[in-house]
Amino acid sequence: MTNIIIAGAVGLILSMLGTPLAIRLLTRRGIGQQVREEGVQAHLGKRGTPTMGGIVFVLAALFAYGASHLATLTPPTVSGTLVLFLMTGLGAVGFLDDFIKIYKQRSLGLRSGAKALGQLVVGAVFAVLVVRQPNVYGITPAETRVSFLRDIGPSIGIVGFTIWVLIMIVGFSNAVNLTDGLDGLASGASGVVLAAYVLIGNWQLRNNCIDQLGPNCYWVRDPLDLAVVAAAVLGALIGFLWWNAPPARIFMGDTGSLALGGVLAGLAIATRTQLLLIILAGLCVIITLSVIIQVGFFKMTGKRVFRMAPLQHHFELKGWAETTIVVRFWLIAMLCAALGLGLFYVEWMPKP
Q1: Which residues bind Mg(2+) (predicted)?
Q2: How does 125-139 read in b/e, with b if 16+ C-beta sit within 10 Å?
Q3: Taking each helix axis from N to C terminus, what angle separates 157-179 and 282-301, rounded to the nearest 10 degrees?
Q4: Dihedral sign, Cα of residue 134, residue 70, residue 236, residue 234
Q5: 139-178 pLDDT per residue, tens
Q6: Is the CB of residue 176 less than 8 Å from the CB of residue 133?
Q7: What is the C-alpha to C-alpha distance for residues 11 and 240, in angstroms, rounded to an integer?
Q8: To 10 degrees, the CA torsion angle through 307, 309, 313, 316?
Q9: Measured between alpha carbons, how far is residue 108 from residues 96, 105, 305 in Å?
């Protein structure tokens, strides 16, 4: 538990103090947000706001994770390291995307194919490594099986599992990216899910099969360290949200949104709660579905379901204030996380 507290506290302090420094540095170098002319007109006033702020909380989380292990004299684990690798790798892909936007002064960065390729390469490395590296009890960070509240069904093989992991990684990194359309929206929504994984990792630690073998125990390799990772990123994200909340003084950019999607997918895979993430991150899933519905319906009928997609912009065009949308969407994110945690707990409860 000490590791979790230290990771969260260090991440919070580093991000809280580091973000205003990043704002000044990025402003001085003219690294600002590009806004599409055909987008929501109210967003034109945000042009030039410092972006690529995701660098701050990614670095803060990495330092916080290291500090927690240094303070407690415990070595990093394979599971924690792999999840942080996934977060950092996808953050690097997002950094390239943001850099190209700024360098070429346009709202589009990497071509979709190049961006997807970067996500797939990082995801494939993670997928291969996560089913290896067993501990002394033979438990690997993940099994080649699909999981909901724990692993379910037979093995789908390394090829099938790799494809499944890639779908998760690309899907959720893009889902957080789509959610990042209003000040503080993606930060708050992702923070709620990270808080849920702090609880899940801690619960799996207290009910692991190594210490107390039973019908409801969990075969998870490093549950405590996964909670530490979640706490480190959560603390760093809260510190960033202080400056990213509406009206935002800095944006996370694709650097931050892809990194957040990666760490959420990584935590789900390593805690054996892959399908549960769909519920925990329900807001991001809903927003992604709104884009799929909009595009699909328009291609079939030539008409739109929403005034604009992603969903948050539909409500903007209906006249809702940005802060109203953000706060209400945060509430939806909290309800989704609460539902997911409720299912997780109910499944564990001893049967009479």
Answers
A1: 177, 254
A2: ebbebbbeeeeeeeb
A3: 90
A4: positive
A5: 999 999 999 999 999 999 999 999 999 999 999 999 999 9
A6: no
A7: 10
A8: 10
A9: 11, 9, 25
User: Would the CA dihedral through 278, 259, 173, 187 be positive or negative?
Assistant: positive
Q: 222-240 burial by CB neighbour count: b if 16+ within 10 A, else e?
A: bbbbbbbbbbbbbbbbbbb
The torsion angles phi and psi of 174, rounded to 5 degrees, stand at -75, -30
Question: pLDDT digits over 48-73, tens only?
Answer: 688 889 999 999 999 999 999 999 99
Q: Which domain holds residue 312?
A: 2-348
Is residue 270 within 8 Å of residue 91, measured between CB atoms?
no
Phi then psi for residue 146, to 5 deg, are: -80, 150
- Binding-site sequence positions for Mg(2+): 177, 254
Cα angle, residue 121 at apex, residues 123 and 273 outer, rounded to 5° = 5
For 35-46, b/e burial (b = at least 16 CB within 10 A) is beeeebeebeeb
Provide the whole-model pTM: 0.93
Q: What is the chain's alpha carbon radius of gyration, rounded to the nearest angstrom?
A: 20
Which residues are part of a known binding site?
Answer: 177, 254
CB 86 within 8 A of CB 126: yes
Say how far apart CA 6 and CA 223 lie, in whole Å: 16
- List, in sequence order, the alpha helices (H) in 29-53: none
Distances (CA, A) of 213 to 207, 219, 272: 9, 10, 17
Instruction: Give the DSSP per-residue string, 292-319.
Output: HHHHHHHHHHS--SSSSSSHHHHHHHTT
pLDDT of residue 112: 80
